[in-house]
Amino acid sequence: MAKPLDLLLVSPPSRDLVFQALGKNLTAIEMPVWSTLMATFFQNGGYSVRILDAEAHGMSFDATAKAIVEAQAVLTVFVVYGHQPSASTQCMPAGRAVCNLVKQEAPYLSTLVMGTHASALPRRTLAEEPYDFVCEGEGPYTILGLLELLKSGSQNFGRVPGLWYFQGGQICSNPVADNIQDLTRELHGQAWDLLDVSKYRAHNWHCFEHIEERQPYASLQTSLGCPYKCSFCCINAPFGGAGIRYWSPHLLIDQLDILVNKYSVRNLKIPDEMFVLNEKHVIGLCDLIIERNYPLNIWAYSRVDTVKDRFLEKLKKAGFNWLALGIESGSKYVRDGVDKGRFKDSDILKITQKIKDHGINIVANFIFGLPDDTQESMQDTLELAAEINAEWANFYCAMAYPGSFLYTRAKKLGLPLPDSENGPGWIGYSQHAYETLPLPTETLSGVEVLKFRDEAFNKYFSNPCYVNMVGQKFGPRVIEHIHDMLNCKIKRRFHDMVSSS
What we know:
The chain has helices spanning 15-19, 22-25, 33-44, 61-71, 92-105, 116-120, 122-128, 140-152, 183-186, 249-261, 279-292, 309-318, 332-337, 345-357, 375-388, 405-413, 446-462, 464-474, 476-486, 493-499, and strands spanning 7-11, 49-53, 75-79, 111-114, 133-135, 163-167, 170-173, 217-219, 223-226, 243-246, 267-270, 297-302, 320-328, 361-368, 392-397. The protein is an alpha/beta fold. The chain has 2 domains: 7-173, 3-Layer(aba) Sandwich (Rossmann fold); 202-499, Alpha-Beta Horseshoe (pyruvate-formate lyase- activating enzyme). Strands 2-1-3-4-5-6-7 form a 7-stranded mixed beta sheet, sandwiched between helices. The longest helix has 17 residues, at 446-462. The model has no long low-confidence stretch (mean pLDDT 93).
């Protein structure tokens, strides 16, 4: 008789809700990094573990629920994260839909939810969602304590750090677990063997040099947390505050050896919130990659004020072909208002040119609708984007994500949010959903911000200067791809309401 499964880690299928038509061919299909890390943690502890990545396999809600019920795990954990470290909230509706189906079929199965959103709003999550338990914190110690209790048959949930639960009809919680300090020893790598690596797909721009070769694709986590405190970001909600911890470069290169030699991975993402920061860490990993002479195509996050000359040559030689920069706004006043560095527009132009001079492509990230934004400052942002002319640009609307200072501020001011009464709910925090509803500013409604963002996207990618640059650098096939992307229109509920009124 087969041994019962201890732990099932689930990534619910959110792509259709979150990305609409873009999810079919344009967006990436990301690895469930947290699930792979926790799987290794529990495997090393002698527990049986499976990962159900319904997102990667394109499963429906019904099929996902059926697979969960069939697994009959002692504990089923819904690991709710998104493409970006802060993109957890918009994935909550899919988790809810699947868990509701599970509870209808097998109400006895124990379920827990974890992620940035759950850590930011644990009480509300337990009260409103169908899960039996909520994890506040990064997860491994909390899940370990709960799993041990469930296997023993005990109901003494007060012993489990970071756990939110019902007792006697009342919501109860325990002090948050300590963060893992020695990542290399306790979270010893990612459990690639529990995934079908061939299912994962790189971002379209990541593969502009080989646009038809986006698979296989993998994500290698090299640190946890972020030392910065940008007011629009919620990345540190599971960690209790700003800070950063690193894995050993030697463990990381062992992981990379597996990805390259066993799974033939070339396209690689470093999903750390801030990779280009610590010299010992960055140079240490780059040197080990360079020693192996792997033909990699890597992208990672950086900041304008962390890019150093000594990094760039090493990064390029190691295969870092793309760096993503959080520029956010073309107005220093607006940037200062959200604690986004203290750099000037001239610094941005100098650094982006320096990156290009080293043969590294840029993903320039911009946000419209930050608290001090006006129509004029958003136009300044678009003009700065055109001046930089990065190989790719992401245009976002400001969102008051739960766990961020902007969320606390918006609630205090009574601003309309997706989760406000009569709002669209958590899916409204998605940047590309039908229900998207951005944060309003003092002078602009959320719908006006969204309209500007969508028009800015089309203007940037149809700009002749951009199209010519991309054509010269990557060839006519990428120009065709950009054209096809612009023809893939997404619907906006609140746009349409305004347009038809």
